[in-house]
Amino acid sequence: PVSSRQAFPLPSLPRKQPTVLVVCGPAQNGAIGLVCARHLRIFDYEPTIFYPKRSPDPLYRDFTTQCEKMDIPFLSYLPTEVQLINDAYNAVVDAVLGAEAEAGEGREPCAAILATLKHVRIPIVSLDVPSGWDVEAGSSGGISPDVLVSLSAPKQCARRFLGRQHFVAGRFLPYDVQKKFELNPPKYPGTECVVAL
C-alpha cells in the first residue's frame, strides 16, 4: 500500500486537522495544483482549492470537474486577512505560477495572491518553482516556501531554496528524456514516486 507521505510529502502535517489550501494559477502549474488536490483527497486530507482564473483548456476543465465530483470545495475569494488562512488550514500548496513565472507576477489575480501568501505563517509547499521566483536566478521578492517539490528535476532556482525540505517527483521521466537533458535522477526506493533531496 502507498502511504500518504509517498503521494504528498508533508510529514509535519497533523492528521487531526489535515486541512490544506491549494492555490492554483491559470496555467500549467495551476493544473498540477488541481491534480495535487485530488491526490490529497484520496489520501484523506481535506483540501480546499482557490482557483480564481480558470483556464479554458479542456484538460484543465476536466481536472476541475474531477475535483468538484470529489466534493473538494472551491473558495470564491482568498481572504486578505492572513489570520483567517492561518486558522483554517494546516498548510498551503503554492501552484500559482511555477516555471511559467513570466506569465506575470504583477498581473492580477497573481499579484494579490502572492502578496497574501508572503504573510501566512503556516507551511507553504511550492510545486516546481516557488511563485514569484525567476526560474533561473531564484527569489526576487517571491514567496519563501517551507517545502519545495521539484517536478521532473530541480530547476536552476532550487539552488537558492532555503526551506526545510526539498523533494523531487520525477520517477516517471522516460530514459530518453533523462539522457537528452543529461539528468542524473536520484534513486527512488521501492515504489515511491517522490524522494527527498
TrEMBL record:
Provide the Gene Ontology terms for cellular component.
mitochondrion
Q: Which domain of life is it from?
A: Eukaryota
Please list the GO terms describing molecular function.
Answer: NAD(P)HX epimerase activity
Domain YjeF N-terminal residue range list? 1-185
| Matches recorded under InterPro entries | YjeF_N_dom, YjeF_N_dom_sf, YJEFN_prot_NAXE-like
Q: Which Pfam families match?
A: YjeF_N
The record's listing under NCBIfam families reads: yjeF_nterm (TIGR00197)
Q: What is this protein called?
A: ApoA-I-binding protein 2
This protein's species is Spizaetus tyrannus (black hawk-eagle)
Its ancestry begins with: Eukaryota, Metazoa, Chordata, Craniata, Vertebrata
